[in-house]
Amino acid sequence: MKLKIGELAKRSGLTVRALHHYDAIGLLCPSARSEAGYRLYNRDDIARLHQVQALRRFGVSLADIGTFLANPGSNLSGIVEQQITALTRQIDRAGILRAQLTTLQGELDAGVEPDLAAWLTTLELMTMYDTYFSKEELKQLPFFAGDAACIAEWDAMVARFKQMIAAGTPTSSPAAQLLSQEWMLKLERDTNGDPDIMVRILAMQAREPALREQNGITPEVEAFLKEAFTQSRLAMFKKYVSPAEFAYMDAHYRLRMDEWPALIARVRKAIADGAAPDDPPVRQLMREWIDLSQSFAGDDPATHAKIRTAYEKEPLLMIGSWITDEMKAFIGQAMAAMRQHS
Fold first, then answer.
1. Domain boundary, last residue among 219, 249, 265
2. Is the domain of 85 the same as that of 215?
3. Residue 74 CB coordination number (10 Å)
4. Which domain holds residue 18?
5. pLDDT digits over 250-308, tens only?
């Protein structure tokens, strides 16, 4: 029995995009293809995927998993050490709140009124997430719902970014770019593919010092991650555009890149609300889409045609975009409708 990629994604709980990524980096390549060119996965492929996912639960990077599977005799001690380190950080964070609550309890039991700072610190730790997410959302998101394995994975990735920074690893290195792609894949997965959740996470990360203290994502880590991911995308675009076009993109790509998530979230909401591609509010969204696209690639239609080709031929460009096939189809229809109205 062989499974197509969509079937394997459904059965394994992964996304098709993640399986494409595993194939592209040589971590899990399908053993066969159908006559129509579809990927087909057999029993051995699925067994390998099981190993990959088991190691991911230990917080091991995809690059390290590839190395480990290529050498089955490798010692697992280092992997376990990574998990212990990540779990220790998680316990430490929980301990901060526990200690604060214990102090408050002791003071109250002794008839002492805790000072204002003590109450504020406790409230900050307890209510930070409630400011940005509903109770239902917090229950559904694994890193907020207390999923220990998920939190350990994130902690391990933060630790690897810090190791790269400390070692002077350039953001242009394959290792840094691969880790940044892995980060974005995981972020898509753990936000349930909802770009609005991601927008709120970014806002919370920017405004809440207590969150940075908890998750260890310092401004330095954030800047390194963003630049590594940007360079990974630019490297793919470079194969399809002229040197002059690439120079323009390289100079302008970063200027407004932070505006994309909110716009993508609004398009997603329009689809969820049942908006038609030719509705006036959707046409306004498409004008904003064109404006953002031109901000990094200029206004030459030929350049944008090359960029569309890049997206068609480079599935890894979809990582971290939160754009589904449904959204791509809707945007295409909306752009066509807008041209008819112009």
1. 219
2. yes
3. 13
4. 3-57
5. 999 999 999 999 999 999 999 988 999 999 899 999 999 999 999 999 999 999 999 99
